Amino acid sequence: MKAIQARVTGQVQGVAFRWHTQEQAQRLGVVGWVRNEVDGSVLVHAEGEDDAVDALVEWCRHGPPSARVRDLAARAAAPSGASSFEVTG
């Protein structure tokens, strides 16, 4: 099992990035959350099987078609014990 936190920057707010991320996470069996930050970035907390979390992070490097991802910075995080993947903030 793996847990990460990733900050995605670029044109990632106002383009349904959070909802598409939730859809991808659910498809991959990843739990956690995604939220908009006041600085214009999107923050993702993801937990699950290593390959599934890695696949979600890779998807976030591009995001949905209307997004323009400039950068993604991921780091290990403490598991939160989430049971689903939620859109917050």
Descriptive report:
With 89 residues, the protein is of the alpha+beta class. The chain has a single domain (2-79), classed as Alpha-Beta Plaits. Helices cover 26% and strands 40% of the residues. It is built from 2 helices and 5 strands. The chain has helices spanning 17-28, 50-60; strands spanning 2-11, 31-36, 42-48, 68-76, 85-88. The protein has a 5-stranded mixed β-sheet, covered by helices on one side. Helix 1 runs antiparallel to helix 2 (50-60). It catalyses: an acyl phosphate + H2O = a carboxylate + phosphate + H(+). It is an enzyme of class 3 (hydrolase). InterPro entries: Acylphosphatase, Acylphosphatase-like_dom, Acylphosphatase-like_dom_sf, Acylphosphatase_CS.
SSE topology:
Elements: E1 2-11, H1 17-28, E2 31-36, E3 42-48, H2 50-60, E4 68-76, E5 85-88
Parallel strand pairs: 2-5
Antiparallel strand pairs: 1-3, 1-4, 2-3
Helix pairs in contact: 1-2
